[in-house]
Amino acid sequence: MYQVDLGPLKSTVSEWGTMESRLGEAASEAHSGMLRKANRARWSGVNADVTRPFIKAVADETTDAHVESRDLHDKLSAAYKALKSIQDDLQMKVDDARRKGIEISDGKDGQILCKYPPQPGHQNEVISEKRRKALKSLAEDLTGLVKRANEQDSYTAGILAKIHGNDPHNFGKNVPIDKYEAKQALRITKKGTDASTKEIRELAEILKYNKDNPAFSHTFFKGLGGPKETLEYYARMSIDGTGAPGKSRLDAVQDLQRYLGPTLATATDPDHKGYLNWGPQFRRLGTKEIDIEGIGFKPQGYQLLGGILRHGHYDKRFLTPIAEHVVQLQHDHPKGYWNTPSGPDMQFGFDPNGKKNSGYDPLTSVLEALGHSPEASEAFFSKDPTETPVTAYDENGKVDPNKTIGYRYLEELTSKDFHWNNDGSSPVKGERLMSGKDAMGHALESASIGTPYDHPPANGASEHTTPRASIVNRLIESVDNNPDFVSRDISDSMGKIAGEYMPEFNKALAEADGKSDGTLFSTEHSISFNSKASVRFLDALGRHPEGHAEATLGAQQYQAQRMHTVVQNPGEFPGSTEENLRDIARNGGTVEGILGSARHDAEISGGQEREKEFNEEVEQRGEMVKKIIGVPLDAVAERVPVGGELVSGVSEQIVDSIVESHQKNTSQEDADNAATVSFDTRKEAGEWAQQAVRSSGYSSGVDPEVVARNIAQEVAGGYDHGEQLRENGFDNKARRPSE
């Protein structure tokens, strides 16, 4: 294993990749060309009875060949990655041991021996206990690596045989492969916590490569036994991982959690034939206590299911009813409903991948699930009992026709009275871990943007449909009623939503300004944002580093895009191009004025310590600010489709300027420094707009310098107007956000 050359395997992977591509083309041509012509031909006699079926058989065999080649490529690729990782680890350990003078050799039955060679004159010297334990540990590690390699090799050989099918006259079919891999996975699950760490990694890998395969997922979860057995298995494994000493076991269980969820999402998707209709059973188990051996308390079903749901893109017909039931339970039991261990929890937890939470609060879990499932989150937040009756569930998850839901979930979760549970693994008195609000932000992102919160929009741009825009509009109104809802935990999501919906915000502010009718800022729907509520929303998120950065980036990106559009398509807009550029600049300045003054106040009211937190947070997010919903800077054009010069010039300048302006020295104790930062932001807003209009181009016969100067003046005027709008947004009786 130390010396084996994996180069030929790597080359084989590449060759099968080429083969798979070519056979894919051949299969497509066989069906769209040869077979289609045969089906259209008016044959009779022998041609109809023999030739046409023969042509169909050839086309089908070509498809089978493509499927077989694809499976071969996938499995060989997985084998190469696994063996290369094992070899790298083994070589590193062996080389390090040899540098220390340790001899390594093969023993019996696959065991590896490690020893210090005797030195002249010290043949009878007994090594220390510490050295002996170190040698034993090294030998066990190396033996384990070689064993893993052999098992991977054997496993891959078995898969390849199944793919081939051993029939010299027919290419292999895909179904036996699915069943074979499901059987391998279930063999490991039956061992439960007795499975070795290596076996858990193997199981996670099987799930990883088959999570989108309906046939595999159906077979796998049926083999587990059912919904209750699935929850029990997950509970035992998650606790085994979070309570295990060392990091190796936890890493393996984390991978298991990452891929178990997506596999369940595939298994429960009604669009797949033979899907598992487990939603009603999960709801029934949601409030039931489930006895798990080795735990000092009895968790409820939703607490266990939540850990699985955190990963995967679920169908709304499965997930949305579960989310509704959990929120209804929280509404009916605001002081707490879920079982937790007594005292600080130093060992257990149902979210092995969790960083701030242990997974005991299923509300946090289902909101995180909605964050990965945009169709489900949109359906959830669109529920409105004033328009259509909302399904009510009893505590057992059954539809209750005698119960009425009189609230909307969006307003319920953003209200002042809603209680967010502390889901920390070891709560400290006075500490507030708002992982639930963080997950709420993720759910709102997916609902309003239409993609999982941690994925870029499809084709780089999201569609602002009426339902999505309505959700954002109601969110703005909710924040207007409860500005304190926008805390640091959720401000980054609020900033992303604001950045995404800059057309709507600009339109609302332009109409309120009176200098423009908002025509320049067209939207794909008829939803109009309230101007005062929009100002207060931008103010609330602008007080936090993450929200401020995300919203500012989105505002400047949109401003640059609109300038480019009016220059390149002057006939599509009323008025002259220069007038339109000035209106866009003024409106962009207005947005910057609201956000910039919000930051100014946050630093003034928070004092030196708040300024320090502001800078530290932005420093940690330095590279994150150069992304738009997970898209690296070099892919910004996909979201804002403008010319290459505009993207490479303005976008990078915008991002760098935002980061630089955030990281200005704010260590002085007096308020003058924060005022300087605000002034600089005002000046930089004008410079960004000037660069944007230069990159967009100029109409013939205009003086570029005059246009640039006018743009800067409009931005400055807009900035001052934005500051005033923000001041007017709060009367003497209205309290600003406390944070």
List the helices and strands and how they pair.
Blueprint: H1 7-40, H2 46-99, E1 103-106, E2 112-115, H3 129-164, H4 175-189, H5 197-210, H6 214-224, H7 227-242, H8 248-267, H9 279-286, H10 301-309, H11 316-332, H12 362-371, H13 374-381, H14 409-414, H15 435-449, H16 466-481, H17 488-500, H18 502-513, H19 531-542, H20 545-568, H21 577-620, H22 636-639, H23 644-662, H24 672-696, H25 704-728
Antiparallel strand pairs: 1-2
Overall description:
The protein is mainly α. The protein has 25 helices and two strands. Helix content is about 65%, strand content about 0%. Strands 1-2 form a two-stranded antiparallel sheet. Strand 1 and strand 2 form a beta hairpin. Helix 1 packs antiparallel against helix 2. The longest helix is centred in the N-terminal third of the chain and has 54 residues. It is globular, with a radius of gyration of 31 Å. The protein starts with 6 loop residues before the first helix and ends in an 11-residue tail after the last helix. About 5% of the residues have low confidence.
A few lines on this structure:
This protein is mainly α and 739 residues long. The chain is 63% helix and 1% strand.
Strand order, sheet with most strands: 1-2
Count of strand segments: 2
Tally the helices. Answer: 25
Radius of gyration: 31 Å
H/E topology pattern: HHEEHHHHHHHHHHHHHHHHHHHHHHH
Please give the share of residues in helix.
Answer: 55-70%
Largest sheet: 2 strands, antiparallel
Which stretches of 5+ consecutive residues score pLDDT under 50?
A: 426-431, 618-652, 665-671
Shape: globular
Query: How far apart, in Å, are the first and last alpha carbons?
Result: 59 Å
